[in-house]
Amino acid sequence: MNNWFCYLELTTDDLDGAEEFYGKLFNWKMSDMPGAQVPYRMIDTGQEPAGGMMKLPVPELPVAWTMYVEVEDVEASAAQVTELGGKVLMGKQAVPEHGWFAIVQDPRGAVFGLWQNK
């Protein structure tokens, strides 16, 4: 496994506004993710990595882009983040039919996601 940046995700307080802004700015195409438990827009940039956007899961979070790194085992990688002085901000979560993710922070405060394909 190459541990590449495999996915980008925007969490925002204005999903429709973000879709309009990025769609016009970069000519990105958006589509609703079928079966999503919350409104989620898939981003088609015409190339990899893929991306998506959603409303902030909790209001305290800042509007931000999160980069996800592909790993073989999201739980083991999250544990290693802690061992190396980082923090696990959100433990392993399932994305039905796709895989699992966790949100972590490095020792200097940079936040990123871990992604494990199903």
Quick overview:
This protein has about 120 residues and is an alpha+beta fold. Helix content is about 20%, strand content about 45%. It has one domain (about 5-115): Roll (2,3-Dihydroxybiphenyl 1,2-Dioxygenase, domain 1), CATH 3.10.180.
Helix count, per DSSP?
2
Computed structural class? alpha+beta
Overall average residue pLDDT: 92
User: Tally of extended strands?
Assistant: 8
Query: How much of the polypeptide forms β-strand, as a percent range?
Result: 35-45%
CATH class category label: Alpha Beta
CATH architecture: Roll
What does the radius of gyration come to?
Answer: 14 Å
CATH structural fold name: 2,3-Dihydroxybiphenyl 1,2-Dioxygenase, domain 1
Shape label: globular
Portion of residues within helices: 10-25%
Biggest sheet, open or closed, and with what strands and sense?
8 strands, mixed
Descriptive overview:
Strands 2-3-4-1-5-8-7-6 form an eight-stranded mixed beta sheet, with helices on one face. The radius of gyration is 14 Å and the shape is globular. With 118 residues, the protein is an alpha+beta fold. Helices cover 19% and strands 45% of the residues. The model has no long low-confidence stretch (mean pLDDT 92). The chain has a single domain, classed as 2,3-Dihydroxybiphenyl 1,2-Dioxygenase, domain 1. A hairpin with a 5-residue loop joins strand 7 and strand 8 (111-117).
